[in-house]
Amino acid sequence: MIFFKSLIILFLFSTTSLFAQTKEVDKLLEKVNQASTPQEKKELIEKLKKELATKNIKARQESDAIIKAKEKMPNKLFDEKAIEQ
Would the pLDDT of 17 be above 70? Predict the structure, then answer.
């Protein structure tokens, strides 16, 4: 029984640590919070703005692609009765 509990805990730990990702935005935000001088904060904030802008553009392109793909899908389901006649 202890073996199964430890196996389950190991599995849960490995899956959570496997999917945990440190994002570049998170790193920059932490650097902004730890910056000592106002000039350094301004530079890091500019980098953060650029990073967020690129992520926003990528997300917008992906959502536009999804919308275009959905527009191509037929609104009605296929009707076999029309072919049989």
Answer: no
Q: Tokens 């490995």, residue?
A: 14
At 33-64, the pLDDT tens digits run 888 898 998 998 898 889 889 989 999 999 99
Phi, psi angles (nearest 5°) of residue 58: -60, -45
Q: Which of 3, 1, 55 is nearest to 26 (CA)?
A: 55
Mention every residue, 6+ apart, whose C-beta is less than 8 A from residue 55.
25
Model pTM score: 0.56
Going from N- to C-terminal start, the domains of the chain cover 22-72
The phi, psi pair for 73, rounded to 5°, reads -70, 140
Q: Which residues contact 41 (CB under 8 A, 6 or more apart)?
A: 32, 35
Q: How far is CA 80 from the centre of its chain?
A: 40
Instruction: Please give the pLDDT value at position 48.
Output: 86
